[in-house]
Amino acid sequence: TAYHSGAVFKFNGTDGAYLMQYGKGLLDGPVGIACGPDDGDLYVASYRSNQVLRFSAAGKFIGVAAGASKEDGRRTKSGR
């Protein structure tokens, strides 16, 4: 991730070649990334929006995995 660019960058694991970026416009200060153990989805912490966003391994936005609502600032989990 790159905090000021607001994006996740994907590189080839063998030669380090740049492959793609995703999350631009969705992430606001990305600070951490984790890979789901069962599905391979990527979970990216967006610092300034207080959210964890979920992306497929191909970079497609799936949804908000957890975060604060814009209305009241309370933290929520998706699907609850």
List the helices and strands and how they pair.
Layout lengths: L7 E4 L6 E5 L7 E6 L6 E5 L4 E5 L5 E8 L6 E3 L3
Antiparallel strand pairs: 1-2, 3-4, 4-5, 5-6, 6-7
Please provide a brief summary of the model.
With 80 residues, the protein is mainly β.
Looking at this protein, list some descriptive labels.
single chain; 45% strand; two-stranded antiparallel sheet; mainly beta; 80 residues
Number of helices: 0
User: How far apart, in Å, are the first and last alpha carbons?
Assistant: 28 Å
Main sheet, how many strands, which sense, barrel? 5 strands, antiparallel
Question: What would the average pLDDT be, to the nearest integer?
Answer: 84
Radius of gyration: 13 Å
Strand order of the largest sheet: 3-4-5-6-7
Shape: globular
Would you give an account of this structure?
The protein has no helices and seven strands. It has strands at 8-11, 18-22, 30-35, 42-46, 51-55, 61-68, 75-77. The strands form two sheets. It has a five-stranded antiparallel beta sheet, with no helix packed on it. It starts with 7 loop residues before the first strand and ends with a strand. The model has no long low-confidence stretch (mean pLDDT 84).
